[in-house]
Every structure is written in C-alpha cells, then in structure tokens.
C-alpha cells in the first residue's frame, strides 16, 4: 500500500491526480501545514525539506524495505516508473514528458507560488514583486499555450507533465491571468478539468480544508521560515 502524506494544495493535488488516474490503492496521511504538522519528527524523517507531498511505498519494485520519496516531481516519476503509466518508455517520448515535468518544477510552480505570495499573502504590497511574478507567470502561460497549439497534452500523450502543471494553473485568476488570452492552454485546461480522475482528486481535497494561509497563526508557521526553523525542527 502507498501512504501519501498530503494536504490539498497544488503540489498535493498532483499526486492524488496520478493515483486516481492509475487506480492505484493508497492511503492519505493528512499533513495540516497551517498547523505545523510538516515539522513532526516522523514526517521530517521522510521529508527533510518540511514540505508535503511525500510518499511511502511498502511494496516497492525491488522489494525489501519501504521506499520513501519527497518532492512532487520525484514522486510523479516514481509512480510512473512503478506503474508503467503516464510516461512514455521510448527515449524521445520519455524526455518529452520529463522536460515538461521539470519545467513545471523549476518554473511554473515556483513562479506561480511567488506570484500568489506577493499578490495575495504578503502584508506589505510590493508593486515590483507583484509585477515581476505576474509577468513571469504570464510569460510561462504563453510558453504552454504555444506548446499546446499542435498537440493535445504537453508531451503529446497524457502524462505526468500535465498532472504537474494543471494544479498550478487552476487558480489562474488569483495569479492575475486571463485564460482567454491563451486559447490552446484554455482548451487543454478544460480537457484536464473534465477528466473524471482529476475531478475525483479535487473532491478528495475538499475533505481536508484547514485554515487559509492568511490566518495569522498559519501565516506565522508558513512564512518567515529560516535556517533556525530547520535546525530546531519547527
Ligand atoms: N518542491 C516541492 C514543494 C512542496 C511545497 O512547497 N509544499 C508546500 C505546500 S504546496 C508545503 O508543504 N508547505 C509547508 C511549509 O511551507 O512549511 C514539491 O514540489 O514537492
């Protein structure tokens, strides 16, 4: 059985989308990040970056001790390799998927995250920072839009790259973007939105709603972490 350490955020949704698409049995272990559960000692052992998602597989391909994985991109790759699904096996197809997965991990995710932080969470409204990340999100949407002009999904066939990108485009309005400016991306977005497994993954998320990151106690836990936070474990 796979244990998924999860909270319903974009990075969490990526993994429930995969597991629902592949019909892989799994058990959710909630990690309420607004309450600081990401700093519990047991969780830090499998996710030293104090971030969810993380996964423990007690029936790995090579058998033996359970395998634990943190970082959503690594988890998607692990699951694709375990199940043989949603990543092409041939060299070219595989790298079509992997490059767009890494594009999400290094670009779309972090830039949208900073966009959201400065536009919606920062107490101090900094016009330069807000514009910087809104513009970069805007640029990245155009990259995706161009890519999707002549193929159904980012890698061609449906893959872990789409599962990684979609949750980070769901809140496009919060990120100051107009999806009508990106017609190919909009077509892809609607296709993703209508997939039954994607709907199911988001439905599962609704069971775990905690306090929003704007709550003062949650904000204290989530924002302003430094090396000292890591050294003392929370
Ligand atoms: N690069 C990591 C990012 C994970 C991440 O940022 N998770 C957030 C929620 S989306 C989290 O656990 N935050 C807890 C905290 O900030 O302490 C991944 O893709 O897994």
Q: Which terms would index this structure?
A:
234 residues; alpha+beta; 4-stranded mixed β-sheet; 4 strands; binds glutathione
Account of the protein in words:
A four-stranded mixed β-sheet has the order 2-1-3-4, covered by helices on one side. Helix 1 (10-22) links the parallel strand 1 (2-6) and strand 2 (26-30). The chain is of the alpha+beta class. The protein starts with a strand and ends with a helix. The radius of gyration is 18 Å and the shape is globular. The chain has ten helices and four strands. Helix 1 (10-22) packs parallel to helix 3 (72-83). It binds glutathione. Residues 9-11, 33, 38, 50-53, 71-72, 222 line the site of glutathione.
How much of the polypeptide forms β-strand, as a percent range? 5-15%
- Give the spatial strand order of the biggest sheet: 2-1-3-4
Q: Helical content, roughly?
A: 40-55%
Helix count equals 10
Mean pLDDT over all positions: 97
The Rg value, from CA coordinates, equals 18 Å
Biggest sheet overview: 4 strands, mixed
Q: Name every ligand kind in the structure.
A: glutathione
**Which stretches of 5+ consecutive residues score pLDDT under 50?**
none
Shape: globular
Distance between the termini: 29 Å
SSE run: EHEHEEHHHHHHHH
Structural class: alpha+beta
Secondary structure layout plus pairing:
Blueprint: E1 2-6, H1 10-22, E2 26-30, H2 41-46, E3 54-57, E4 67-70, H3 72-83, H4 91-121, H5 127-147, H6 160-165, H7 183-194, H8 196-205, H9 216-222, H10 227-232
Helix pairs in contact: 1-3, 1-8, 4-5, 5-7
Glutathione binds next to α1.
